[in-house]
């Protein structure tokens, strides 16, 4: 199975800051990577798929990049509603494993 | 619009079986796959398995001996069955629609399962 390693596990930032979350795959997954946001007590929501394509309705301050084994999610000018947990997931053959998650908290 | 809603028993005793139903609307189960994902309390997401539009399935290798996913297209329902439950199966269980590229583009609200005697 492909392993997904996400970093950092937690991150503290202020409104207006720019943050980057990284995700590494244990083998080449080309661009088959998705990012999800999950707020406390809610179900995950798709942010990015195919490594860099924003899902419908996702603000342009979010951007995804990378290919192969190294990927990142960048959030420009953090807004209060951006705080929560973020997960990467590969979608290159089952099982579609998730990264361990990054908890983004308000500083 | 696309909606998914899980319904489950809430509490199951150890060694028993779990059955959860995912009722969908806004898309056809013959055209899109539905995955199951779970999240233990305070922990991350774990992908469990998927049933595709043609009825074929794929399961997480760690659960393949205990997990079964099926569906009733006419009722727009997908079923998860997990046997021989242990306390570490305690989690919120989500069903999610597969997008065109095999990512989960719509999620249900989740149903919480506690395994306890």
Describe the structure in your own words.
- The complex is a heterodimer of chains A (107) and B (117).
- Chain A is mainly beta and 107 residues long.
- Chain A is 0% helix and 49% strand.
- Chain A is built from no helices and 10 strands.
- Chain A has strands spanning 4-7, 10-13, 19-25, 33-38, 45-49, 53-54, 62-67, 70-75, 84-90, 102-106.
- Chain A has a 6-stranded mixed β-sheet with strand order 2-10-9-4-5-6, with no helix packed on it. A 4-stranded antiparallel β-sheet of chain A has the order 1-3-8-7, with no helix packed on it.
- In chain A, β5 (45-49) and β6 (53-54) form a beta hairpin.
- The termini of chain A are far apart.
- Chain B has strands at 3-7, 11-12, 18-25, 34-39, 46-51, 57-59, 67-72, 77-82, 91-98, 104-107, 111-115.
- In chain B, strands 2, 4, 5, 6, 9, 10 and 11 form a 7-stranded mixed β-sheet that branches. A 4-stranded antiparallel β-sheet of chain B has the order 1-3-8-7, with no helix packed on it.
- The mean pLDDT of chain B is 96.
């Amino acid at each position: 199975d492909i392993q997904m390693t996400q970093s950092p596990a937690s991150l503290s930032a202020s409104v207006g800051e720019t943050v980057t979350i990284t995700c590494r795959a244990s083998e080449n997954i080309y661009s088959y990577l998705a990012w999800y946001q999950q707020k406390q007590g809610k179900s995950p929501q798709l942010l990015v798929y195919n490594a860099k394509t924003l899902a419908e309705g996702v603000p342009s301050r979010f951007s995804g990049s990378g290919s192969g084994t190294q990927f990142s999610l960048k959030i420009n000018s953090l807004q209060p509603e951006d705080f929560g947990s973020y997960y990467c997931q590969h979608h290159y053959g089952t099982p579609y494993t998730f990264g361990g998650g990054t908890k983004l908290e308000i500083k | 619009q696309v909606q998914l809603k899980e319904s489950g028993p809430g509490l199951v005793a150890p060694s028993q079986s779990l059955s959860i139903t995912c009722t969908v609307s806004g898309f056809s189960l013959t055209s899109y796959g539905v995955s199951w994902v779970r999240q233990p309390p305070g922990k991350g997401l774990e992908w469990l398995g998927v049933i595709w539009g043609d009825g074929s399935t794929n399961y997480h290798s760690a659960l393949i001996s205990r997990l079964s996913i099926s569906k009733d297209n006419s009722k727009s329902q997908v079923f998860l069955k997990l046997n021989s439950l242990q306390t570490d199966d305690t989690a919120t269980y989500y069903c999610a629609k597969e997008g065109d590229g095999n990512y989960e583009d719509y999620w249900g609200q989740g149903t919480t399962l506690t395994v306890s005697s």
